[in-house]
Amino acid sequence: NIKNKYILDLSDNGPGLPENIDFNSKKSLGMRLISNLVKQINGQLRYEYRNGTCFFIIFHLNKKIKSAAKK
How many CA atoms lie within 13 A of 5 on its CB side? Predict the structure, then answer.
């Protein structure tokens, strides 16, 4: 359902991440935070390099997220 689909775009203009990075290792605090957020909202994570690091968190707004946002 495209109506309730959202994309959160997080980016910077730094050197980017190494090509062989293993996102599953989650050693850095930042990667653990991103990974946990994606799991909590049942989302998907996509990474691209566009003159810096670009993360896209894709998720659907459901009742659980709506009620948490109201608090």
Answer: 6
Q: What stretches in the chain show pLDDT beneath 50?
A: none
Handedness of CA 46, 69, 60, 42 (dihedral sign): positive
Alpha helices, DSSP H, located in 1-71: 29-40, 63-70
Q: Give one word for 9, left, alpha or beta, with left for phi > 0 and alpha for psi -120 to 50.
A: beta
- d(Cα 51, Cα 54) in Å, to the nearest integer? 9
How far is Cα 7 from Cα 55, in angstroms, rounded to an integer? Answer: 10
Q: Distance (Å, rounded) from C-alpha 44 to C-alpha 60?
A: 10
> Is the pTM of the predicted complex or chain greater than 0.85?
no
